[in-house]
Design goal:
Bound molecules: 2-(butylsulfanyl)adenosine
Distance between the termini: 17 Å
Shape: globular
Number of helices: 24
Oligomer: single chain
CATH superfamily of the largest domain: DNA ligase/mRNA capping enzyme
Low-confidence stretches: none
CATH class of the largest domain: Alpha Beta
């Protein structure tokens, strides 16, 4: 019954929007991510079967698979002004003096907010539906980044209670990248030898400027709303009311917003955050102080570039100058050699910094860092400090450029530069420097999470020949450990217990812990769910691996190589025999296409090729890229090409998109 289906689709969409609200606005989710994904899948399936019921505001339609050719310019109906800055409490008091004078004896109060370090965005909602998203640009004209902003799950595609909002509501706010996402993104980029983003702000800006929204969708950007642009009807009398209203409409508002009755309180709040900000999981570069009432804002007005009713308070720069004592070369778990500068200790953002990564030798050469140099270093939040530039004027006489090593500093083996990357690697798989790093990663928090098995202990275990591979960890006895430096009997027992406990970790953690190139936690989860056991994963051919959704050819090749190396296989077998053999239940799927091999060819209307293949897999079928006698169906879209001819020649059944959807 189409009427019933429509009702069901509407109900699912409403339900998902409510969960978005609970998650992104109230920060109080009621259901697990998995259940949410199930709702999504259910909706997606219904929509695929009833394509006429798909609407652009459906939660399934966030990601467009049609890349843009270029960004179109948008003129802002209300300009996006910038803000004047202050750097200390005196300047904040001077701002308050100006406000007091102009308001001529009226009572006023302030709202104090975090200054989110991201990219300013204007979201235009028309009749409660997101119509356009634009960057600030020069304040008058920005870029239309709607396709990319639609992928940000914290940005509602339709406002809740949308009937009770003005016809036009422009919401302004900040798109940002949470610190954790930033660190992970750079890790992936470093693995793939791609240039790193300098900070989360650049990463957010870069992610919004991608022509293909599918890549933006992978970047896990987030959003906070903090002001209005054009507005066709009243929404509130003051800023505080607007923020409350935003929340009711399903727009995420930063939870750390405070009212302040006077400038003393404003200063208290601002100074307090310069310490507390380390605890946030996103970056802020200061505070924003705003006069609360709109009628008073009108009196205050604006200068050419910035309003007089608000000001930012910028935290002291997290940069410092220090000198380079020496430059070490560290060996990473996959053999990458990284130059690290040892620095004269310097205080920076609440910690003492003694070392800074120089990333790679190309970067070191570009900066031309030498022993004895004075360098400017920067630290952003949790992120490791980095050298920004060398103060060449202070360079002492007689310094020499750093020589790129020709041998591994740990084992003396040859090194090789990646063919199309920037990294230099030690080629010796038995290098103990690499082994130590692999073991540290294996035992680390995101992987097997073996408590008490820390960096210093691993160094000792390798140096004493007690551990030569992952499996050896599981043979350690308390008696052996107790003989090591700074290892009392009780600590030794703690280590052995923690090692034992790690045997209960789920399969994906073990897969991740092996440290296979290009395979991080997320891909490990996909693999674990797909194969259910390490044995099954080890048996998989390269094509089978590549056919898995979200496992690309580079990952497939890396996995295949890893499990076709005798030494690796021997270690995994020994892990198994020592009791490390986690299982993972396979994910339940439908069996509508069970056992069917299907080739997709030509362009489909409702699916990208990848989506169609994913759908086939979810229904128990096997997508394949070449037609043979064993092919059950060829799913042909527009301009199908030679695969269709071959199917006809071999007598393979050809189906169209409609027939495919009927099968599901
Ligand atoms: S209000 C007239 N509130 O800071 C400008 N801006 O340096 C009104 N920003 O372009 C902006 N957090 O991108 C406002 N809580 C906040 C903010 C904030 C970050 C950014 C915004 C703006 C920049 C100005």
């Amino acid at each position: 019954m189409p009427q019933d289906v429509k009702k069901k689709i509407d109900r699912l969409r409403r339900e998902m929007r409510r969960h978005d609200y609970l998650y992104y606005v109230l920060n109080q989710p009621e259901i697990s991510d998995r259940l949410y994904d199930q709702l999504f899948d259910e909706l997606k399936t219904l929509e695929q079967a009833n394509p006429n019921l798909i609407t652009a505001d459906s939660p399934t339609q966030r990601v467009s698979d049609r890349p843009l050719d270029e960004f179109v310019s948008v003129r802002h109906a209300v300009p996006m002004l910038s803000m004047d800055n202050t750097y200390n409490s005196e300047e904040l008091r001077a701002f308050d003096e100006r406000v007091r004078k102009q308001l001529g004896g009226r009572d006023y109060d302030y709202i104090v907010e975090l200054k989110i370090d991201g990219v300013a965005i204007s979201l235009r909602y028309e009749a409660g539906t997101l119509a356009t998203a634009a960057t600030r640009g020069d304040g008058e004209v920005g870029d239309d980044v709607t396709a990319n902003v639609r992928t940000i799950k914290a940005v509602p595609l339709v406002l809740l209670d949308g009937r009770n909002v003005p016809d036009v509501l422009e919401v302004r706010g900040e798109v940002y990248m949470p610190t954790k996402e930033f660190v992970e993104l750079n890790k992936l980029r470093s693995d793939a030898s791609e240039p790193l983003f300098a900070n989360p702000r650049n990463a957010a800006a870069g992610s919004l400027k991608l022509l293909d929204a599918r890549t933006t969708a992978e970047r896990n950007l987030a959003f906070f709303a903090y002001s209005v642009g054009e507005l066709s009807g009243p929404l509130g009398e003051n800023h505080y009311q607007i923020l409350q209203r935003f929340k009711k409409l399903g727009l995420p508002v930063n939870p750390n917003i405070k009212k302040a009755a006077d400038i003393d309180r404003v200063i208290d709040i601002c100074l307090g955050w310069s310490e507390k900000k380390q605890r946030l999981d996103y970056q802020i570069d200061g505070m924003v102080v705003k006069v609360n009432r709109f009628d008073q804002r009108d009196i205050l007005g604006a200068t050419g570039r910035a309003p007089r009713w608000c000001i930012s308070y910028k935290f002291p720069a997290e940069q410092a100058e220090t000198t380079v004592i020496s430059i070490d070369v560290q060996v990473g778990k996959s053999g990458i050699l990284t130059p690290v500068a040892n620095l004269t200790p310097v205080q920076l953002a609440g910690t003492t910094v003694k070392r800074a990564s120089l990333h790679n030798f190309d970067e070191l050469n570009r900066l031309d860092v030498r022993c004895g140099d004075t360098v400017l270093i920067e630290k952003a939040g949790e992120i490791i400090p980095q050298v920004l530039q060398v103060n060449k004027k202070s360079r002492p006489p007689g310094t020499v450029p750093f020589k790129v090593p020709k041998k591994c500093p740990n084992c003396g083996s040859d090194v090789r530069k990646d063919p199309d990357g920037v990294y230099i690697r030690c080629v010796n798989r038995d290098c103990t420097g690499q082994l130590k790093e692999r073991l540290k990663y294996f035992a680390g928090r995101g992987q097997m999470d073996i408590e008490h098995l820390g960096s210093a202990l691993i160094d000792q275990l390798v140096d004493n020949g007690l551990v030569k591979n992952f499996a050896d960890i599981y043979t350690l006895k308390a008696g052996q450990l107790a003989g090591l430096e700074r290892m009392a009997e009780k600590s030794a027992r703690n280590v052995v217990n923690a090692v034992e406990k790690s045997k209960a970790q789920p399969l994906w953690r073990l897969i991740a812990a092996l440290g296979i190139r290009h395979i991080g936690g997320q891909s490990a989860q996909i693999l674990a769910e797909h194969f259910g056991s390490l044995d099954a994963l080890m048996q998989a051919g390269q094509q089978t691996l590549e056919d898995i959704d979200q496992i690309g050819p580079t990952m497939a090749e890396s996995l295949y190589d890893y499990f076709h190396n005798d030494k690796n296989v021997a270690v995994v077998r020994r892990l198994n025999s020592l009791g490390v053999k986690p299982k993972q239940p396979k994910v339940k799927r439908s069996d509508k296409l069970a056992g069917k091999t299907i080739v997709v060819t030509g362009s489909l209307e409702k699916f990208t090729r990848q989506q169609a293949e994913y759908t086939i897999r979810q229904a128990g079928g096997k997508p394949s890229s070449s037609v043979s006698k064993k092919t059950d169906f060829v799913l042909a879209g527009k301009e199908p090409g030679s695969k269709l001819d071959k199917a006809r020649r071999l007598g393979v059944t050809v189906i169209n998109e409609k027939q495919f959807m009927d099968m599901l």
